[in-house]
Amino acid sequence: MSAQMIDWNLAVQTGTRLVRPGPQVSQAEAQQVVAELRELAKLAEGHVRDFTGIQAADPDRGHATIVDRPGWIRANVDGFRAVLEPLMDRLAERRGGLAGGPGGAVIQAVGSRVTGVQMGAILAYMASRVLGQYELFLPPDPDGKAPTGRLTLVAPNIVHVEQELGVNTRDFRLWVCLHEETHRAQFTGVPWLRSYVQEQMTEFLLASDVDPVAMMERLRQTAEAVIDAFRGGDDPDNPPAGLIDAIQSPQQRQILDRLTAVMTLVEGHGDYVMDAVGPEVVPSVKQIRARFQRRRDGGSRLDKAIRRLLGIDLKMRQYAEGSRFVRHTVAAVGMEGFNKVWTSPECLPTHEEIKNPGAWIARVVGDRSLESGPPSEAGEG
User: Fold this and answer.
1) Cβ atoms 182, 174 nearer than 8 A
2) Does the pLDDT value for residue 150 go beyond 60?
3) Which residues cross the membrane (predicted)?
4) Most confidently modeled of 153-167, 292-306, 355-369?
5) C-beta separation of 18 from 120 below 8 A
6) What distance in Å separates the CA atoms of residue 8 and residue 330, rounded to the nearest whole number?
7) Which of 200, 207, 169 lies closest to 288 in space, CA to CA?
8) Distance set, CA 15 to CA 38, 204, 379 (Å)
9) DSSP 322-372
C-alpha cells in the first residue's frame, strides 16, 4: 500500500474554504455565461483548425467543461493526484520506502495533512486567477470513452477580468476560448505531444536528488512563504526562491530546459493564434490584447512576489518568448513551414532556438539564410 504524501481531500477542503468568491451575478446571468462559453468554445474549434491547419482529434468529444473556482480546485487535485501518486510511489521504492525511518512516519502520521493544507492554500490563490486551461492529466477512465484531456474554462474569473478591463464580453470570451482551444488542438491533433510532455515531467521528478519526504518539505516551505506573503511577513521585493528553483538537480536542469522549450512553444502558439485569427472573428482584439497585457504586466508588489514563488512569472515569459518565436517563424516560412515543428520531438525548438527562430528554421526547414535570427526586440514584451 502506498504512503500518501498529500491528503488530497484536505487539499480540496482547504482550497475551497480559502478561495475568494467570484463576481456577484444572478442565477440567470450565470446560466447565460455558461451557455455562451460552451457555444464559443465550439466556435473557436473551427477557427483554430482553419487557421493553424491542426485537426483536433474527436472534436465532438472535446466540449468545454465550465467550472467555478471550487470546481477548478477539484479538477486540478484530480490531475495532480493522477500524476504525482504513481511517481511518489516510484521514488519511495527507489529509496527503500517511507515508513522505515522517522521521516516516513512523520509524513504518514502528520505530514500528509500539513501538506494537504499547504497545497490547498496554493490552489486557492491560483483558482481566482486562471481563466482556462487544457487539462492534460485526468484520472483513468474505466470504460475508455472519455477524452484523455479536458478543456476547462473558469467562468467567474472570465467575468471578473472582462468587467475589470471594460471590454466587449463576447469578444473577450471568444478570445480566451481561442487560446485554450489551440491547446486542445495541439495535444489531441499532434499524436506524440502529450506523451512527450508527460515523459519529460516524469523524468524531471524521478531525477530529483532529494527523497520524497524532503521534496514534500520543500513544497510546504514554498506554500508557507506564499501564506506569509499574504500576511505581510515577507519582503515582496526580495522573495525566497520558488518551488522549481528548490528541487533541481544538475540532471533536472537539462530536462527542465527541454520541458521549458516545449511549453514555451505551446503557450506562445496559443497566444499567437488568439491574436492572429483576426478582427473579423474578434473585432476588438487589439483593444483586448492591449488592456490584458497591461493587466498581466501589473499587479502589486505582493502579487509579483507570489507569482515568482509559484513560477507564474516563468509562464508569463513563456507567453512572450513563444509568441515571438511563432510570429517570426510564420512570417519567414508561412504556417506550413512553421507546422514542421509538430513533425516529431526532434523538430521541436531548443531553449536557444526559441530565442533565435532563424536557427530553428535553418535546422528544420532548411533555409540557412535566416540562421542569424530576428532583429533585436529589446523593447518588446
Assistant:
1) no
2) yes
3) none
4) 153-167
5) yes
6) 43
7) 169
8) 26, 26, 39
9) HHHHHHHHHHHHHHHHHGGGGS-GGGSPPHHHHH-HHHHIIIII--GGGTT
Question: What is the rounded distance in angstroms from the CA atom of residue 153 to the CA atom of residue 135?
Answer: 10
Spatial distance between the Cα atoms of 296 and 317, rounded to a whole number of angstroms: 11
Nearest to 189 by CA among 329, 337, 321, 48: 48
pLDDT digits over 126-138, tens only? 899 999 999 887 7
C-alpha to C-alpha distances, 215 to 86, 246, 254, 270, nearest whole angstrom: 15, 9, 19, 32
What phi-psi label fits residue 147: left (phi over 0), alpha (psi between -120 and 50 degrees) or beta? beta
Strand 150-154, strand 65-67: pairing: parallel
Say if residues 246 and 218 touch (Cβ distance below 8 Å): yes
Higher-pLDDT residue of 245 and 38 is 38
Mean pLDDT, range 146-152, rounded to an integer = 76
The residues with which 67 forms a beta bridge, in sequence order, are 154
335, three cell numbers: 504556417
Rounded Cα distance, 290 and 312, in Å: 20
Cα–chain-centroid distance for residue 203?
18
Q: What is the SS3 assignment for 183?
A: helix
Give the count of alpha carbons within 13 A of 375, CB side only: 2
Residue 53 CA, distance from chain mean position: 23
For the record, the C-alpha cell of 245 comes out as: 528553483
Going along the chain from its start, the domains and CATH numbers come out as: 1-93+107-189 (1.20.150.30), 203-223+247-367 (no CATH)
How much of the chain is helix, strand and coil, in % rounded to 5?
70, 5, 30
Query: Average pLDDT of 260-285?
Result: 93
Q: How many helices (H) and strands (E) does the chain have?
A: 16, 3
User: How many whole angstroms separate alpha carbon 289 and alpha carbon 295?
Assistant: 10
Calpha distance 240→189 (Å, rounded): 40
Number of Cβ within 10 Å of residue 162's Cβ equals 24
Give the Cα separation of 76 and 48 in Å (integer): 25
What is the β-pairing status of strands 132-135 and 65-67? unpaired
